[in-house]
Every structure is written in C-alpha cells, then in structure tokens.
Amino acid sequence: MTSTIFLSVAALLYTILIAIVYFSKPRIGSLENKIYKYLILVSLLSLVSELSLTIIPYETVPAFYNIMLKVYLVCCFSWIATFVAYIFIVGKNETSKSSFTTKKLPIMYLCLYVVSLLCILILPIEFYNTPTTKYSYGPSVNFVFATVGLVMLFSIIFLLKNWKRLKEKKYYPIVFFVVFFIMVVIIQKINPSLLLVNSTLSFITALMYFTIENPDMKMIAELDIARNQAERANAAKTDFLSNMSHEIRTPLNAIVGFSQSLAEEKDMPLSSREKARDILMASDNLLEIVNGILDISKIEANKLEIVNTEYDMHKVFDELVLLTKARIGEKAIDFRYHLDSSIPAVLYGDYVRLKQIILNLLTNAAKYTKEGFIDFKISTIQSGKVCRLIISVEDSGIGIKQDKINKLFMKFERLDLEKNITIEGTGLGLAITKRLVELMHGRVVVQSVYGKGSKFTVAIDQKIVSEKVGVSKQVEDTPLSVGGKKVLLVDDNKLNLKVASMLLSKYELDITQVGSGYEAIDQILAQKQYDLILLDDMMPKMSGVETLQKLKGIDGFSTPVVVLTANAISGMREKYLKDGFQDYLAKPIDKAELEKVIRKYLN
Fold first, then answer.
1. Percentage of the chain surpassing pLDDT 90?
2. 44-53: average pLDDT
C-alpha cells in the first residue's frame, strides 16, 4: 500500500495542475470540452477519496471508511461512464443524425447510469484489512469491475471498427484506455492492494487535454475565420477597385480623347487650345490619383507582382526624359540628364515598375521646383552578370525639413501642406516608390536641405543579357502605311467608340463599330474579314473575355484581338494576355501605345 501511495499523490498533483490550466482559460462550448470538465472533477474527487482511505486508519471511524469506499467506487464508475460518452461523441457521424441518436440514446444512457449508481450504493462491500494489506471486495466492487470489462470490450470493438482512423488524436485516449486497463486489471488481480486504477484514469485525463480542443486550437480556428474574412474583404476591395477604375477611366477616356483632338486642331484659337491643354493636365492628374490608389491597394494586398522581361534601358531613359520635359512645361527650370554609356544595351528586370519608380521621383521634382534645376542621372556598377543601376534625381526645389523625412514615404502624407496647398497630389507617389523599390530588392536614400532642394538616390540590381534576344527596337519615326486596313471596334459605350474612331482616323483605316460582343460575333460569322479587333472587356451580357472565347471557337478565325479596357489595375495586362488577347490597351487611350499596337499588327 505504502509503495503506491506516492503514485496517487503524484497523480493528484498533476491532475490539480491540469485543472488549473484548463479552468483558467475560456473554452469552446463543445461536447468534448463539457465531458472533459466532468472527467477532471471526477478524477480529483476519486483521488481525494482514495488518499483519504489510505491515510485514515479503518479502525478509527469504520462508518466514514465505508462511506468513502462507496464514494470512491461511484467516482471510478462515473469516470468510466463519462468516458463512454466521449467514445460515443468521437464515433458520432455528423452527417447522419437520426432522432434515435440525438434524443433517445442520451435518455437511455442517463437512465442506465442512474440504475448503475443505485446498484453500487445498495450492493454490499467488504473490506480486507491487515497491517500490511488493505483492499475492498464484494458485490459492489465486482459490479464496477464488470462494468469496466464491458467498457473495455466496447472500446476494443470500437477501435477495430475505426482502425483506419486511429492516427487521429481524438482516438489516442481510447487506445491508451484499453492498453493500460488490461495491464491494470492483470496487476490488480495479482496484487489487489496496489493503487493503480486512479493513477491510470488520471494519466488518461491528462493525455486528453492535448487531444481535445484547447485554447490554442480555438485561437487557430479564430485566426482561420479572420483570415477568411480578410480574404473576402480583399476580394471585395479588388472588385470595388476594378469597378472604380472602369467607371472613372471610361469618362476620362472621352475627356482625354476629345481634349487631345481639340489641342491639335490647327484652326482652333490659341486660348481654346490652352484650355484644352489645361483639361488634359487635369485629366492626367486625376488619372495619376486613380493609378496611385489602385497601386497602393494592390501592394497592401500582396497582389502586385514583379514581371521581369528583357528591355532596352536607353529607350526607357529617352521616354522618361520626354515625359519629364512635358511635365516641366514652361517653368524656368534647367533640366539636365545623363545616362552612363557603359550601361548594357539589354537588361532583364521589370522595366515597367522601374520606369514608374523613376517617373514618380521626376514628377515630384517637377512639382516642387518652381525655378532652378533638375538633375537626372543613371550610372552603373557592374559585377559579373549583375548591373546595379544608381538612379539619382536632384532638384533645387522647396526641400524637406529633417524632422519630416521619416514621414516622407508614408501614404497620404503631404509635407508643409499649408505652403504647398496649390500643388496637386495625394501623397501616394513616394509611398508607392518605396514599396516598389523594396519589392525589387533595392534601396532608396533621401538627402535634403529645407529651402534649397532635395536629392533622391535609388539603387536596383538588374541582370545583364549577353545577347539581344526577344527585344525588337522599333523605329518610331518610320512612316506608317496602314491605309485601308480593316479594324473592328467593339464597345458598349458610344462615347468610347467615338473617341477610338477619332484617334484611329489619322491612320486612314477602314473602321467598323459595334456595341456588343454578340454583334462582333455576327460580323465574323457573316464572313467579314478584319485585320485587327479592338475589344472592350467590361460589357453587359457578354464580356470581352467571353466574346474572345466564342470568336476563337469559330473555324478559321485568326484575327489579332487587342483588349481595350478601363479595367487597368495592376496585373490586368498579364491576366488579359493569359486569357488569350494578343495585346492590351488601357483607357484613357494613350496615343503612343495605340500607335505601337498599330505598328505591331497592321504595319
């Protein structure tokens, strides 16, 4: 007896610890947790009654001793009965809950439990007591042992029936119950005085803590729910941004198109042409704001991808210079620029994002410099197959206060707002620039003296392409000869059709306009031949993507199809190319991009 009392004390201590841990934190109100709560309480009461029987001599208070023996047997039986309920829950088929399972079985179980408790309490119990050995026996004890035997048989049948699922954690306590109780029964028959039953029950109770749902599992479940909600919110935001892009760009397409036409009219009075240019500038500012919001949203949603291709850095540099000169306009600014002649002709990287980074810096310099200079340089450090581009943009503008530099790359942050209230912008340009530089594994450094100017330096590594593969340098000033070529314009918006036709009119093309995908399909089915199709995507009833798939299903169809869309958020070009379009034109239509498409598919 004394040799195993320490085992009971240890069992009581770790059961108390398990109880403290379990009840100190909130739990999910599942059946498993409710059952486990009863198992802990019954284990504690059973261990206390067992230790009291061990410590208190039988001769002192025999009546109390007999009561504690009954309590001990009731606790052991209650633990077994509760564990049977756990087995039922583990094996319950959630997909088929019959009325018998959900209603009658619990009632039958409760009735059987009450009857069994009455049997334990009514049946007599005997106690063997000598100076060296103590144990109980008699009908009441035999009834409990018989019950344990039936539960073990039931557990074995249950495990055999579900043997393929034994690797699941919730089956572990049942396996341990069968294995350990077989050992305990054998040992107890050999030496009835050993205190092993309660220790084994406590061990299984402790094991179950790690197999049922606990606070960590609850937290994981809550995180999963939160993640799913965030993903749905991000998807909704992406849909909203896509729709917003379409709704804003569609009228902008008309504004920009007609303004460009007015600005190029030779007979237009000078004052009217200046007003048209002002409209174009305001449209460009609005488009810049829309693009900034879309880009920063894509970056925050981790949806912005770096798409690497081969490109000509010299060509990119020339385009940046032309764009910056247009942005400076008639300001008294000396725009100086220099490209290191040692830069390889062909590099490999995301030149679209690189161009966006540099253009953001040049645009800011043009915005905040009223007079003086803007110095734009690109130099290089080459090592093996890697070319490190060192891009610097220095200006003599308003400069930045030292205590404000840390806020410079925060979104929607504009410095010295009172002083620069007349300067357009949202404060997104530099935030996007920094994120893009980081995505391309580069660095950006700012140096500034307030009132005297600023210098932004960006370092980005690009791969060197040894051969000029896949890069076709077009000669932009080569005259186009596409007169008479047939183009099919497909758009549900009449203004967009008018704008596109106006932009294409100078190429003397034969243009056919239709207002839906159905009409476009009818044109092809009528055996009409076209050299190019410009197809809007976001149309009612049948989208551009759906129209394209139906066109490709027509025998002999081989006309190049270019998507013409106001859905111009980041990543859409790649999506449309994947959908099967040959090329991509965003609204508002950029004249230079339109001419590239014409040169590529009609020249």
1. 17
2. 84
Of 162, 158, 214, 226, the C-alpha closest to 30 is 214
Q: What is the DSSP letter of 102?
A: I
Residues 114-123: what's their mean pLDDT? 85
Q: What is the pTM of this model?
A: 0.47
What residue type is 401 in one-letter code? K
Nearest to 246 by CA among 284, 282, 294, 280: 294
Across-strand partners of 203? none
The pLDDT of residue 421 is above 70: no
Closest CA to 46 of 19, 21, 27, 28: 19
Q: Is 86 helix (H, G, I), strand (E, B) or coil?
A: helix
Per residue in 147-171, pLDDT tens?
888 888 888 888 888 888 888 888 8
Terminal Cα distance for the chain, rounded: 102
Residue type, 26: P
Alpha helices in 339-420 (DSSP H): 351-367
Question: Distances in Å between the alpha carbon of 442 and those of 21, 417, 438, 448, 576?
Answer: 49, 29, 5, 20, 29
Note the Cα 256 to chain centre separation in Å: 36
Give the total residue count for the chain. 603
Confirm if 148 and 180 have CB atoms less than 8 A apart: no
Contact assessment for residue 372 and residue 449, using Cβ atoms and an 8 Å cutoff: no
Q: Taking the C-alpha atoms of 401, 407, 410 and 414 in order, what is their torsion angle to the nearest 10 degrees? A: -40
Q: What is the pLDDT of residues 452-463, one digit of tens each?
A: 899 999 999 999
- Give yes or no for a contact between 473 and 517, defined as CB atoms under 8 angstroms apart: no
Q: Which long-range contacts (CB under 8 A, 24 or more apart) does 100-109 make?
A: 109/84, 109/85
CA distance 462 to 382: 10
What's residue 278's pLDDT?
74
The owner of tokens 């253009």 is 359
**Cβ-proximal residues to 159 (8 Å cutoff; 6+ apart), any chain:** 166, 171, 174, 175, 178
The DSSP output letter for 1 is -
DSSP class of 105: H
Q: Give the other-Cβ count within 10 Å of 241's Cβ.
A: 19
Give the best-scoring range by mean pLDDT among 103-112, 293-302, 392-401: 392-401
CB–CB of 340/302 below 8 Å? Answer: no
Bridge partners of 461? 388
Taking CA atoms, 589 is separated from 210, 276, 452, 501, in Å, by 62, 17, 38, 11
List the beta bridge partners of residue 390.
379, 459
User: Among 506, 508, 509, which residue's Cα sits nearest to residue 534?
Assistant: 509
Distance between CA 83 and CA 78 in Å, rounded? 8
Strand positions, DSSP E, 65-198: 126-129, 134-137
How wide is the angle at C-alpha 444 spanned by C-alphas 289 and 424, nearest 5°? 25
CB-side exposure of 559: number of CA atoms within 13 Å?
Answer: 29
DSSP 566: S
CA distances from 421 to 329, 367, 408, 414, 556 (A): 20, 12, 17, 10, 59
Query: Is 167 or 132 the better-scoring residue by pLDDT?
Result: 167
Task: Report d(CA 123, CA 319) in Å as an integer.
Answer: 100
Across the range 415-430, mean pLDDT stands at 49
- In what helix (H) or strand (E) does residue 513 lie, and over which residues does it extend? strand 510-514
pLDDT at residue 195 tops 90: no
The answer to whether the beta carbons of residues 514 and 523 sit under 8 Å apart is yes
Residue 355 clears pLDDT 60, i.e. is over it: yes
Indicate the pLDDT class of residue 135, thresholds 50, 70 and 90.
low
